[in-house]
Amino acid sequence: MSFNIALTGLNAASADLGVTANNIANANTTGFKESRAQFADFFLSNPYGTTETAVGGGVRVAKIAQQFSQGAISVTNNSLDLAVSGTGYFTLSKNGATSYTRAGQFGTDRDGYIVNPSGARLQAYPPIAGTGAFNLATLSDVQLSTSDNPPSPTTLLKTGLNLPSTASVPATTPFSAADPTTYNNTTSVTVYDSLGTAHPANLYFVKDATANNWTVHTQIDGNPVGPGQPITFNADGSLATPTNGQLVLPAYNTTNGSNPVTLTVDLTKSTQYGDTFSVNSLSQDGYATGRLSGIEVTQEGIVQARFTNGQATPLGQIAMANFANPQGLQQLGDTSWGETFASGPVIRGEANASNFGLIQSGALEGSNVDITKQLVNMIVAQRSFQANAQVISTSDQITQTIINIR
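Above: the chain sequence. Below: its structure as tokens.
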């Protein structure tokens, strides 16, 4: 009996050494989770439920349990390197098979899909067009757009400026953009047509003989856009007319085949104070054609393509997964796991939400293996193996003594 008991101890110690060796071997594997050998004793029972011996039957490996504690996060500055800080797993798909991982070493394949080193595609919730929201009921592959971002024509020009209340009527009339003596002040901005072509736009401000009255002249490409339009201010310097603060200009026809530029100038934040002309804000809502310049991933897992025209297009929101019993997950290799009956069904959600951690772009989660702890475990397993081997040696000596009795 002692031979068999010691043999179970040797097997258990050997399994413990194997687990420790695997942990140490993967100490530098991104997203790796260490395992721990869990042991249990057992007694041999007869059909009547009573133990045949009070000594016991030895030891067995009850479970190799993975430890899903947080690994250290290191910065890489690669936007497609992703780390989960907190709970949750990335969802992957390869040839229709779904798996889960904490290793966020992602890149792109030849078709622009975001993949891990083994070629599994990162899964995300697709964007709902025109809403800024995502379809949380559907998973899709994340594919980077290689096409240009289309232009958007300028329709609204917002300006917040101050016209000097002490200004005098220009010495020369009528207004001419080429003659600075025919206007008081001017400012300029670039606007865009439907083809994304840039056009210089200028606003000229002319003080009228009537107090608090001005005329605004607009030119695009050096060509007048309709006649000058009057604006007036109240005695306290606030804008009086137009009452809604907006000047609607007639359509301007370009020469490059684009749609006419229809521009509205918003002067709501304009004032007439003091003796200084100043432009406090000047913006327009159009932009030119843009080319892909980079990828950005937010803490909520929203993948955005950034373009050279300053625009950002959402490509999807990374689908996060969790499980009631992570230790029940099946190890699939390549630092990934599969859902099992023991793990419970997958629980899907979004990063930085309830029960899910946040995503850090440009960083990776390292292995959670503590080398010092593993070396201590190795020594303990080695001593256990040696002790059980000594039991076998001692039992052999006892048996040999009995055999030698004459």
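The chain has a mean pLDDT of 90.
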